[in-house]
């Protein structure tokens, strides 16, 4: 007898009607007649977790992404039962749970729909692996825009795109290619000037469809695990991002040198080549803080070893580099060579630390050393062991940073270029297959590396960089965007990726300046360095297979351009450090796409090229060859052209000239931009004076901040920092600068040089803390409109003649 049973049990399944409801403090459970449970957890008035179970059963609640330090608590929580729905009311939103089908609609307190289920939660049973394929679909009103999702090399606005999250080694990837190295399942939706966010905390392979399959529906789904997502309400986009970053974790401050310029290549060896490169930077007076050693520094590519032919005395070399101002950063990959005479391999084998296949044998794969086994970084014992391996590198030799690569994990000569699905992982006591652990493998490696560097480098701050990452990786590591290409298209991609990573909670990101694969022209390298110095992580890196890529490779003109912009980055270090402090304290993105800067301006919703560096500097990279300028959009408000000091009204497109030595930059009116003197490396000079560039604004008060500390170490956590807030008020015949200082750190400098830009009057009198001071005593320079004042003034009045 033939039946249609198979057809009946395959396909989508949906929740039935609600039959019971219960509440336990911040958790509200709704159970349906067919055994679906929806658990709603109120973390904050604007942060709500939605978690679904089928068959009346939740999995063990565990996530690598969620930070224990995230803010919790709410001021209002009320649950009201109506005829057709339950309402959960917080201080920020009203959640409507429909009794008939468990669908959800979220309103703001004015009754505007923020987010509404289409089909809502549904699932199908996974006959291949067990468990469920879990799905969610939301209504997408016409005009809604979507942003986020990490390092995707596509238009900033994801409307019309379908995205896959499966950390993948994509050498020489192209525009719109997906997936790439990172899995950040967090997106921001915006409709009618109101923004919200959704973080789908599921480490299986996940997918997002932004009106691609159905023009009025946005969907996300996973090939396993639970439907477990967090909803964040703004309505400001920046608030959505800061709440997400708070949930998944904010970073520590890096050492200031990590924000300098870094030089890397596959590979610098032997020692004489390393010294040749570092000496050339100093000879040409191009500032540089870090030199990187790729896999060739190792003995046969074995991690935690040195090739004694190339580097006979690494401790001496690292010390000599340090004396010349260089921090040494070395690469460490996850593949451990199968070699009975190799001590790292021996220790891992003795303790059973390598990943295994389903039937017991170790996961074997080919990477740079040849046949390798791979540590299970999801096992806390393995992470502890791995951290201990850094003792020699950090404590004895003096290496200052570690670069984790190939940690998607990447494996050569196998289908999919990674571990097979059947590989088993500890998952911190929640045993699982690689299907669940794949996307978090790189983050857990970076975490173990971070813990090792912090242990043996203390009291200095650790510096880690990773290629692969999952949400929450920002707690441990910086990142770069992987193996890009020396093309103009990739310059555009690098710009987009850095902006998107900032939107996705991972601001400390940059690209391989100049491109990793192939070889750039001098013009392309010059334009890339102009962009790269405005990315939080700034490093030139290339494959040696395609020629040299140091700045002097391209001739005198490019040397001069490189020097000019790297020097500018070093001058702006106090501004950049303050940006990072805001990111570490509040989760504020360091780069702001124009839509993030001003979401109320519809002109910004599809802009990709321009971005705001910090809060007050607009960067407009030139991204085409042979360009003598470019058309660009200046956000609403008033700005100054950084180079010409010309006053510019925003809210419109305009053409700006930009020869090869110029990237269009604009500074927001009312801004006070701090600068240090040019240094060849962080710490080369004693900072004897802080320069403040003050951009005149008529009218409302504008606040600028400068954060400083010892530039390394953890004293800042005990209050030994200096946070200066400057409030600027401009009048027709007077400006007022009020300063408020927090923290106990005492800066080296005693004075500030204030340069007044755009001042509409001639200075006649200066008053400091209610006392008129003669202009000659303040070294007043009428040509550049500058004065030198004591650093701890409370109120400064500059008055017209």
TrEMBL record:
This is Glycoside hydrolase family 31 protein. GO terms for molecular function: hydrolase activity, acting on glycosyl bonds. It comes from Aquimarina rubra. Residues 587-673 form the Glycosyl hydrolase family 31 C-terminal domain. Keywords: Glycosidase, Hydrolase. Residues 689-758 form the DUF5110 domain. CDD domains: GH31_glucosidase_II_MalA, GH31_N. Belongs to the glycosyl hydrolase 31 family. It holds the Pfam family Glyco_hydro_31_2nd. It is an enzyme of class 3 (hydrolase). Residues 251-579 form the Glycoside hydrolase family 31 TIM barrel domain. Transmembrane segments: none annotated. Residues 38-209 form the Glycoside hydrolase family 31 N-terminal domain. Its EC number is 3.2.1.-.
């Amino acid at each position: 007898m033939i039946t249609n049973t198979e057809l009946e049990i395959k396909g989508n399944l949906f929740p039935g009607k609600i039959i019971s409801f219960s509440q336990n403090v911040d958790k509200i459970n709704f159970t349906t007649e067919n055994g679906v449970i929806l658990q709603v957890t109120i973390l904050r008035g604007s942060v709500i977790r939605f978690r679904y179970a089928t068959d009346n059963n939740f999995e063990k609640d565990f996530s690598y992404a969620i930070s224990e330090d995230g803010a919790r608590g709410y001021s209002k929580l009320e649950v009201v039962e109506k005829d057709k729905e339950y309402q959960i009311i917080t201080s920020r939103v009203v959640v409507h749970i429909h009794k008939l089908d468990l669908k959800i609609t979220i309103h703001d307190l004015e009754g505007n729909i923020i987010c509404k289920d289409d089909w809502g939660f549904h699932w199908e049973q996974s006959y291949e692996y067990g468990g469920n394929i879990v799905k969610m679909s939301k209504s997408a009103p016409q005009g809604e825009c979507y942003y986020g999702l990490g390092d995707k090399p596509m238009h900033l606005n994801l409307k019309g795109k379908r995205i896959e999250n499966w950390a993948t080694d994509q050498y020489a990837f192209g525009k719109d290619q997906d997936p790439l190295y990172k899995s950040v399942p967090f997106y921001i939706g915006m409709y009618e000037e109101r923004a919200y966010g959704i973080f789908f905390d599921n480490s299986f392979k996940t997918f997002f469809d932004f009106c691609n399959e159905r023009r009025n529906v946005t969907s996300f789904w996973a090939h396993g695990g639970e439907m477990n997502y967090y909803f964040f309400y703004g309505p400001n986009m920046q608030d959505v991002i800061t709440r997400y970053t708070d949930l998944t974790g904010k970073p520590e401050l890096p050492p200031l040198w990590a924000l300098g310029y870094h030089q890397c290549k596959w590979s610098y060896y032997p020692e004489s080549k390393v010294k040749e490169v570092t000496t050339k930077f100093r000879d040409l007076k191009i500032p540089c803080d870090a030199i990187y050693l790729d896999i060739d520094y190792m003995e046969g590519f074995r991690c935690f070893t040195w090739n004694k032919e190339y580097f006979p005395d690494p401790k001496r070399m690292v010390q000599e580099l340090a004396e010349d101002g260089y921090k040494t950063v070395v690469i460490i990959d996850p593949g451990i060579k199968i070699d009975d005479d190799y001590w790292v391999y021996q220790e891992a084998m003795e303790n059973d630390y390598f990943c295994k296949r389903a039937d017991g044998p170790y996961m074997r794969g080919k990477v740079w050393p040849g046949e390798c086994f791979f540590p299970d970084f999801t096992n806390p014992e393995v992470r502890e062991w791995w951290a201990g391996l850094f003792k020699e590198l950090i404590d004895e030799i003096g290496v200052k940073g570690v670069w984790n690569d190939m940690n998607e994990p990447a494996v050569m000569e196998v289908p999919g270029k990674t571990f097979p699905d059947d590989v088993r992982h500890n998952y911190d006591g929640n045993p699982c297959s690689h299907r669940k652990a794949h996307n978090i493998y790189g983050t857990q490696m970076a975490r173990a590396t971070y813990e090792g560097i912090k242990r043996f480098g203390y009291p200095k701050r650790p510096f880690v960089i990773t290629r692969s990452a999952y949400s929450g990786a920002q707690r441990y590591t910086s990142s770069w965007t992987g193996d890009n290409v020396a093309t103009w298209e990739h310059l555009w991609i690098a710009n987009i990726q850095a902006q998107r990573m900032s939107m996705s909670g991972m601001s400390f990101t940059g690209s391989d300046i100049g491109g990793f694969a192939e070889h750039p022209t001098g013009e392309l390298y010059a334009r890339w360095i102009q962009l790269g110095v405005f990315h939080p992580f700034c490093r030139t890196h290339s494959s040696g297979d395609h020629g040299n890529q140091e700045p002097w490779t391209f001739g005198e003109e490019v040397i001069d351009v490189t020097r000019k912009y790297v020097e500018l980055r070093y001058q702006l270090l106090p501004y950049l450090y303050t940006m990072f402090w805001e990111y570490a304290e509040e989760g504020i993105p360091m780069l702001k796409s124009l839509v993030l800067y001003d979401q109320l301006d519809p002109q910004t919703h599809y802009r990709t090229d321009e971005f705001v560096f910090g809060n007050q500097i607009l960067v407009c990279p030139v991204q085409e060859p042979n360009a003598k300028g470019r058309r660009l959009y200046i956000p609403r408000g008033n700005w100054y052209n950084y180079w010409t000091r010309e006053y510019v009204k925003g809210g419109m497109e305009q053409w700006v000239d930009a020869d090869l030595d110029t990237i269009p930059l604009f500074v927001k009116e009312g801004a006070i931009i701090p600068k240090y003197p040019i240094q060849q490396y962080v710490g080369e000079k004693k900072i004897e004076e802080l320069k403040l560039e003050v951009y005149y604004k008529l009218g409302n008060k504008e606040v600028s901040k400068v954060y400083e500390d010892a530039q390394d170490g953890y004293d800042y956590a005990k209050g030994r920092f200096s946070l200066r807030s400057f409030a600027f008020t401009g009048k027709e015949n007077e400006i007022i600068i009020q300063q408020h200082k927090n923290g106990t750190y005492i800066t080296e400098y005693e004075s500030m040089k204030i340069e007044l830009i755009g001042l509409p009057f001639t200075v006649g009198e200066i008053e400091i803390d209610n006392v008129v001071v003669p202009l000659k005593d303040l070294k007043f320079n009428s040509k550049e409109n500058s004065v030198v004042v004591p650093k701890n003034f409370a109120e400064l009045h500059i008055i017209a003649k």
